[in-house]
């Protein structure tokens, strides 16, 4: 019986992996997955691999250098990664962060994507922490117990509740 190409031999993180040929990265994930739990993070080389294959730019608008893939395409890729390792799939799924970022003003998005579309967003929404408006932004004071995927993130989003917010009790990030 022939082994699938993904199981034939381990490859280093420098191996070419693309959206359509995820196999080299899946081999590396399977070979290293026993490291993820004790380290309590996905290694930088794996995050860099997700960047190389386009996970973090998949849902980004083309005007910012993204690929504008469909949610179905994105989910299929995340499923393939998750089959190799659930934690790696979870961190790869942060590629849908572009969906959250899309609500930002255009000027802010240009700053976010100034160095390219491969931006990793992670964070924790709850528990919401108090914030108040000030000149030029907000003053936030709080502690979030866990921000999933934060070691490999470029941006961290956290949940806040503004004092005297006319929008009501809606959380803000």
Keywords:
single chain; 173 residues; alpha+beta; three-stranded mixed sheet; 7 helices; 37% helix; globular; disordered N terminus
Oligomer: single chain
**Helix content class:** 25-40%
Largest β sheet strand count, sense and barrel closure: 3 strands, mixed
- Output the helix-strand order: HHHHHHHEEE
Content of β-strand: 15-25%
Widest β-sheet, arrangement of strands: 2-1-3
Low-confidence stretches: 1-15
Radius of gyration, whole Å: 18 Å
Summed up, the helix count is 7
Could you say which overall geometry the principal axes of the C-alpha atoms support? globular
Mean pLDDT across the residues is 85
State the secondary-structure class.
alpha+beta
What is the straight-line distance between the termini?
Answer: 51 Å
Number of DSSP E strands: 3
Q: In terms of topology, how is this protein built?
A:
Blueprint: H1 5-8, H2 23-39, H3 44-53, H4 71-84, H5 86-92, H6 97-101, H7 106-112, E1 121-134, E2 137-140, E3 155-162
Parallel strand pairs: 1-3
Antiparallel strand pairs: 1-2
